[in-house]
Amino acid sequence: MVFSHCKAVANYEAYNSTLEKGSVISQISKEHAMLIKENQHYLVTLCEILLTIAQQKIGVRESGSLFRASAIDIESESNDYGPHSGNFLSLLALVGNHDEVIARRIRLGPGNAKYTHHSVQNALLDIMVDEVKNKILEEMQAAEYFAILADETKDLSKKEQLFIAVRYLYDGNIHEEFLCIEELETLDAEGLLSKIINVTKDRVNFQNCIGQAYDGASVVSSKHAGVNAIIKDCVAPLANYIHCFNHRLNLVLIDIATSIQCVRDCFSLLQKLYAFVSCSNIYAKWIKMQTDRGLIVMELKQI
């Protein structure tokens, strides 16, 4: 009898607790929902930091041996990844000093769920890149007609890359948008053509291309075997070739500068100095010494 009474009292108290706090299942659901909300808030913050860094055109991480990211000291009152931790971690620590959810995650969160590793940073940036690219392609689909702009250049590691931009009319305004950078395996017309065509593959009808702008290099400007001729003859018959106005202006400025004797002599002297120094054995040792020590390589650039 006493046992039954105690059980009834316990059940009554549990019932009252359920009325106040909800059932065990609902409490678990609320906790789960709160965890999801915190996770979303944390990931959104990471993306916003990366987006800010990208918009400001500053580096995400320090390069080479300078990069040092220490673990957050749990006992410390402030969040600090230490010197040379890079812009991303520094900004994350700053936000953590003013956001309890972020601070708790970077201090006490599991190591595999902090998402601060450089591979995760790159993955998040790639996702944002895809979103921007998809938005541009959607606008191109709506615009229907467009022009392509492309130029080839070398990056700091001497790799050949193709910069591709598009120009189109959307919502009553002319848009000129950078689309992507493609690494080139070959520098012939077929290699350049495949990169340009594949950028809009399966998303935009390339037959609606009505203009193409490149520099004056023969591989793109040739009337018979250049990229512009192949596109016009085989892919987009309305795509008229235009020699890039900026490149024309650059050629004009170079011609004007070299027509002045003192300017021509100055550039000639600088070019000879570059050739003399860069061919020196000491210069090669200087580059090797910087590389061996993991430093940012400082070298002369050809004019």
UniProtKB/TrEMBL annotation:
Pfam families reported in the protein's UniProt record: DUF4371
Domain DUF4371, residue spans: 82-223
InterPro entries given in the database record: DUF4371
Record-given protein name: DUF4371 domain-containing protein
Native source organism of the sequence: Araneus ventricosus (Orbweaver spider)
